[in-house]
Amino acid sequence: MFLSTEGEGKGFTQQKYEEQILQGLLGDICKEKHAQSVGAFCMDEDYFVVEDGSRVHGKKDTKKNQGLCNKAQVECFIFSIDWPPSSPDLNPIENLWRVLKQKLQNRKPYSGWSLKDLQKAVLDIWDNEITVEDFNKYIDSLPERLEKVRCRKGAQTHW
After folding, report:
1. Rounded to whole angstroms, how far apart are CA atoms 145 and 159?
2. How many other β-carbons are positioned within 10 Å of the β-carbon of residue 137?
3. Which DSSP state fits 82?
4. How far apart are CA 66 and CA 24, in angstroms?
5. Beta bridge partner(s), residue 49
6. CA-based Rg of the chain, rounded to a whole angstrom?
7. How far, in Å, CA of 80 to CA of 65, rounded?
8. Does the pLDDT at position 41 exceed 70?
9. Across the strands, what pairs with 50?
10. pLDDT in tens, 141-159
11. Torsion sign (Cα): 3, 4, 9, 10
């Protein structure tokens, strides 16, 4: 799934996040999960979504956003947790995004991608160049990464 920045506003806005993510694929997944768990024990604690501090996530209701994202989360049964500011992001997917970006850079060092070519290249790299071993490398490193965060009393690490 590719997100679109087309439409009102520059870049990826709260409105686009609400439409494409919260009311889109994530909303569909969470509504289905909720329907399956109705009547089950602790249904609200079975899963949750982690969002970073990006303004796009619209965690704060303002006059401008009118609680758009928060309303969508309630409607779609999307349960999220508040992520502490400046917390180290230990999610292994962040490392894989870096790998993906580097592989794109290696293919075309001076940028200049058309949107269609960029999408095609991303899919090709994801399908053919990023392996289960790449995922496992970052997953297996979690104990070491957590220890470094503990030693730094929650501060950022090189990961």
Report:
1. 7
2. 14
3. P
4. 19
5. 80
6. 18
7. 18
8. no
9. 81
10. 999 988 988 898 877 777 6
11. positive
Taking CA atoms, 87 is separated from 9, 36, 65, in Å, by 29, 33, 25
- Between CA 131 and CA 138, with CA 134 as vertex, the angle to 5 degrees is 150
Entry pTM: 0.70
Give the residue among 81, 77, 73, 80 at the shortest CA–CA distance from 33.
77
Q: Among 55, 53, 42, which residue's Cα sits nearest to residue 81?
A: 53
Contacts of 25 (CB under 8 A, 6+ apart): 1
Q: According to the model, what pLDDT value does residue 115 have?
A: 85
Sign of the dihedral defined by the CA atoms of residues 43, 47, 52, 56, in that order: negative
Query: Do you know the residue count of the chain?
Result: 159
**Helices assigned H by DSSP within the chain:** 14-17, 26-37, 68-75, 92-107, 115-128, 132-140, 142-151
Among 23, 27, 114, 133, smallest CA distance to 78 is for 27
Q: What is the pLDDT of residues 99-116, one digit of tens each?
A: 999 999 999 888 788 889
For 86, the token pair is 């400046």
